[in-house]
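Hi both,

Apologies for the delay on this - the queue was longer than expected. I finally got the zinc ion-bound model through. Below you'll find the protein sequence and the ligand SMILES exactly as submitted, and right after that the structure tokens for the full complex including the ligand.
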Amino acid sequence: MDMVAQLWMLKQIYQDENRYFDEASGQWLYRIPKTIPPEDLEALNAAGHGPNQMFLPSHGKVLEELARRSAAWSLQEAANAFLAGLWSAPFLWQSALTAKVLAMGIPPHSHEPFGNSADTCAVCGCLERAVDVAQEWYFCMTEGTPLDGDPSGNVLALREMEKMGSRPMPVDYDVWTFRAVLAVIRSMPPHARYSKVRDALWKEKLLPTSKKWVYGKLLETLSFLGILDTEEYPGMAVSFTPYWKREERPNVRVEVQAPLAWWDSSIGIHEGVLEKIFPWIDISPVDLAKRPTPMPPLCRTVTGCLEQKRAPRKSYPKSPDAGKGPARAGDVYAVCIREGVWVTIYCHRIEGNKAVVEFLEGVFEEFPGKGQIQLLARPRRDGRWLTKASGIDRHPGVRRVARDMEAPKVASPEPEKLSFSQAGSLKSLAWWCFGEL
Ligand SMILES: [Zn+2]
Ligand SMILES: [Zn+2]
């Protein structure tokens, strides 16, 4: 099974609607949508990328493995893999360089609990929490290096690279891409923060992705390495900056870690770090207007190909008793929670452009018919729950089953205050009334 097919399947699995808390293992896992054929899932498992395979990092072992695996890379080999991972090879290869530079700087130490999150190490940021191995692979393949330089994420990335076999060498277009990224950063107006630089890179479409946050991830990677750092907060190729220090931010609105959190365009590119990591390549600015033809073309890159794939449009059934016209009192709608799970709602009345609805008893494997409707209100644990929902005639996952139904049996009067909601959020709100979902 090729990589794009694997990633495409994982993309469909790792949707919020498929996430659930598994009481038995005490973990968040993902349901496999019924649209995925069992033989495809088997092939995904055989490729080592089946979902819900958890890895629980333990600090000492992670640091030992990071040292061992990264020792198999020279800095130049890792830098080459990074360059290739900008365009011609999957993004995963960028992590060769973060792992190598991290391993070069990390001091020997034991796990030191970080403030309130005791499972995070204050020195290296290693998070001792179970992760889904295939999901980590998916993120490294489609977004970039592990978040905040987590050593365990870097170890998992190194394992995946070893599985892939030969290490990629950058083609001319990869080097051009890197020089173009640096050229955009150098051409920013004074004091431009990372979000402005991210937007500028995204506008130039320098990476094989249309996702803006991925350009932000690249800046985080460059900053982690030390290419965009500050004197107070050096990047890893300059000196090891502990996790607790990288967690310092100028204000709470800044999401990224230091050094990037403190960097701006007036500080500029740390030329010494570029010379240390990439001494053999010409990194002088390129003219963005004279862009060479991408090699390979966008549609042949892993991310470019993946982003072109579209799920077949879900076709929802139509009830013979649905009638015509907008929602009115007495209507019953079915709400698709996810593939193969439906519940129903009763429309008590219309207020303005909103329908006052309440969940009814009954969970259905398929779109229910009029005869299956149970006219019995389904409360939350603390009593009846109604909501003023907008857009129920416009949302594809909310379909009318029948009209002119009698009001459901209720155990108590309507609550005085009703919440507002969107038709699209009913599927997640249903959880409050149907704990078993
Ligand atoms: Zn540590
Ligand atoms: Zn400034």
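Main takeaway for now: Residues 279 and 315 are 56 Å apart (CA to CA).

I'll put the files on the shared drive as well.

H.
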